[in-house]
Amino acid sequence: MHENPNTESLFIGGSADGTRIAVAPGEAEHRISSVAEISDEPEALETLDPRPKRVPSVEIYQAIAVEHRGGRETAYALNMMTDEGIAAELLKHFGLDTKFSRAKAGG
């Protein structure tokens, strides 16, 4: 029987927000398939008239090293999130005294 070296990591932002997903230790980037709504009409996403098209897309998450009261771990943030947005999401999941780094986030 083969041992599964993957560990569950917290994902923040995008369609995986707040979930834990098994990833390989040391993985710097993780991609998740999802569906995006697009339209040529600027108002379509707000009014849904005409209905936007649903197309396959890929969300890219970057590894971040997180230090919190419970210890250290690697989490994954949607690559377009700002440092302020990441800090706010981590506060929700880990509470005060949480620090993170976008630098290499080992296992």
Summarize the structure.
With 107 residues, the protein is mostly beta strands. Helix content is 15%, strand content 44%. Strands 1, 2, 3, 4, 5 and 6 form a 6-stranded mixed sheet that branches.
Salient structural properties:
single chain; about 110 residues; mainly beta; six-stranded mixed β-sheet; globular
Cα-based radius of gyration, to the nearest Å: 16 Å
Q: SSE string, helix = H, strand = E?
A: EEEHEEHE
Report the principal-axis shape.
globular
Quaternary structure annotation: single chain
Q: What is the number of beta strands?
A: 6
The unreliable regions are none
Helix- and strand-based class?
mainly beta
Characterize the largest beta sheet: strand count, sense, and whether it forms a barrel: 6 strands, mixed
Report, as a whole number of angstroms, the end-to-end distance. Answer: 23 Å
Helix content: 10-25%
Number of discrete helical segments = 2
Percent in strands: 35-45%
**Please, what is the average pLDDT?**
85
